[in-house]
Amino acid sequence: MELELRGITKRFPGVVANDDVNLRVRGGEVLALVGENGAGKSTLMNVLYGLYKADEGEILIDGVPQHFTSPRDAIAAGIGMVHQHFMLVPVFTVAENVVMGVEPTSLGGIKLDLATAREQVRTISEQYGMHLDPDAVIEDMPVGLQQRVEIIKVLFRHAKIVVFDEPTAVLTPQEIDDFFVIVESLKADGKGIVFITHKLREAIKVADRIEVLRRGKTVGDADPKTVKDTELAEMMVGRPVDLVVDKAQHDPGDVVLELTDFTVRDPSGRVLVDHVDLQVRAGEIVGIAGVQGNGQTELVDALVGLRRVADGTVHLVGQDITVANPRDMHRHGVAHIPEDRQREGIVKDFDITENLALTGYYAPPLSTGLTIDWKAARTTAEHLVEQFDIRTPSVDTGVGTLSGGNQQKVIVARELSRDLQLAIACQPTRGIDVGSIEYIHERIVALRDAGVAVLVVSTELDEVMALADRVVVMYRGKVVADLPRASTNHNEVGLYMAGAKESAA
Amino acid sequence: MSTTTPAGTTATTDATTVVGTPLTFEEKRHARNLGIAYIVLAGITMIFLTGHSGTATFNLDAGRSFGLPAQPLAWFVAASLAVVAGIQLWRGFGKWTNVVLAMASLLIFMSFLAWAAAGREFSFIGMLASAVTFSTPLIFGACAGIMCERSGVVNIAIEGLLLNGAFTSAFVGSLASGWPGMGPKSGFWVGVLAAMITSALFAWLLAWLAIRFKVDQVIVGFFINFFVLGLTSFLSSRVLTENPDYNDTPTLGAWKIPLLERIPVLGQILFRQTVFVYGAYVLVVVFTWFLFRTKWGLRTRAVGEHPRAADTLGVNVLRLRYRNVIMAGAIAGFGGAWWTATLGRFNENITNGRGFIALAVVIVGRWHPVGALSAALLFGLFDSVADKLSLLNTGLPSEFIKMTPYLMTIVVVAGFVGRSRGPKAAGQPYESQ
Hints:
With 505 residues, chain A is an alpha/beta fold. Helix content of chain A is 32%, strand content 26%.
């Protein structure tokens, strides 16, 4: 089977998300579709899957034009999609999730035949070496296994072309290796695979062909056997990119942040952060690595006062701030870049001036006691927009209309533009363009060089490795490793992240 | 707070010493509150329920009966509650907590009945039988609610749908009995059919506004409740009062099930009831089977939990929600006809909030038809007790007696809040991409 996208154009109000895109993939072939966030990869795949209707262009299967108006049509035509955010019902079993929509039935199509469903799931699972229990409930399963359920869902519907949308984003390095083994077996079985990613090394490792998308256009293809990742990055961004963060030798000073026996629980008492001891010194970047959901979010939330600390203490330059609220933390010179930009970092319907005033509005120079001095706020905002290179028509522009990278710069400007003792940055570059990533990384390093203690939390191992002077790995709420960056490598940290290795941290 | 991890924990010493598995902070607070509740209940029992002397005679079937001396029983119950409170606060009952709570509730209930009927006779079995009767519209209402919520639509219009069912079945049933070739009996069933159809139409209106136009589901539900209340009240005073013939249907007699009705005690409670009662039980069984064993059930539950997942697999989310809401409307319409079958006529606001109690039944029954059946029986019991109390001369103000079913609903639901989790997507309009 051969799938071809010909001249696909998709416009949204004010944006051309896909502009005359051409793409071709055959059975038994892995095509990697790489591009920056916002390059139009997801839009293209939604067009292919029948979720969006293309304004121009056509989809051909074996040369025959197709008309998809819903995912049902795409599925029927042999196209399967493994979404970035899994489409699984958490309270259902593996078998129930797999068969939904095409359920095997008895009693004239009414009764659900779960026995047959289980058997069919088991057969597919064994055929591709996925080892899944059809009766396991999704919410009890690790993410890597949940992804296999998604893959089985697609195979169960006899997909000949399988589309993976950022499949490795939520996996540990070891799970990624397992995933690639499954991809190989799918390929060997003659399936055509489209692998969407922004991680260039993975594209080079697994693909037969690489297609690069930039600002909605296909800008070229590359042969993974010969191409270098710097060349790919340049194609992707449109200019030479420096993938390495320039850092001077670090020179740590006194301990600024000290967590002792730090424990966080959820309302039902389950331990989320498990007796963590952690120190961050002045002029040092400590990077917390770990797969999403291993307690990093809760650790930071409790640290900045958004969650109750169940046990243990927090000291900031010797002062006990265990029960401090976010306002106290702000007064103490602690900056917090939250991990969910849209939900916690900005108010979308506010303009830039208002967003920049969100943390400091209560004190001079922004506050005059009873009212806010908007004139001063505006002047400050104009200054910050220039200083932090926020690309916007004016400071009165609604933050919701800015690109992800510029939204993130607004947060960075608000949090880092004052005298700090400690900066906490969570997923500081998630989902933003390479230019903004470079800029924010530079800012973080500059902060360190100015003697601020910096805590970076990221699920992107590359980011932690690029920034950190010390790498701390969290697994199931515990700190399982605390390693100097200079004496560790991706592989070792990856093993800790997967829980395969434990040290006396 | 408690110690689930070994070394390094500073175990906080708490008033309650934990037996068996360690308790979480919330569980401990819950246990303490329960203990305080027992003390309060012991106090209430001691002060109020020891006031009547004499023996209450509780009649069972076939001339059998048993007697309870009101005053000694109240003292005994108060003392037991005090002991239970002490144990609860001191060390808790562990896995027996709920059993103890049920026993204590039963004791208070019996003591209350003995107090109310002291020196007189009281048809105990009649009370239980009418509890089953009163629970019937709640079961229909709750099943309708579950059918909607399991597919992700919050339907607070159950009250309006029941009320419409009651009005339409009475009105159309009365009219139809005069049609050629129709008797009062067959006319009544025509009325029931009309009730199902009109309630389904009202439900369709809710679905259309909530699903198509994404109007807030609670607001649409309120609108339908008030609209139906106003409309039926208006028609009742303008049409039914002026033409009494339009509001006169036969009441449905009990349909005794052969053999089963002869089982002592149970026979009279369960098997000498109307078709509506049996219909409710059949509905619970069939609905449970459909919800958990069929293709439709799987899709309904999926759409209520994660509609996008269902959508990407080609399940038509909006169509399924429409269908479920309309079907639920028909069920509620049938449930509304219960009033007509029981009273033979329609009165203004005859449902009197039973549709809202049905929503409480959904929560207490944990969105499961069988759970809803048990919860409905409990709330039906409160209704039946209130009904019987108004016959006994207890000295309680009648307003207070009428209030009890609602008051008890609040108490029971409060105990369940936070411990009963509904479908995740309930109340959220679905927007396909």
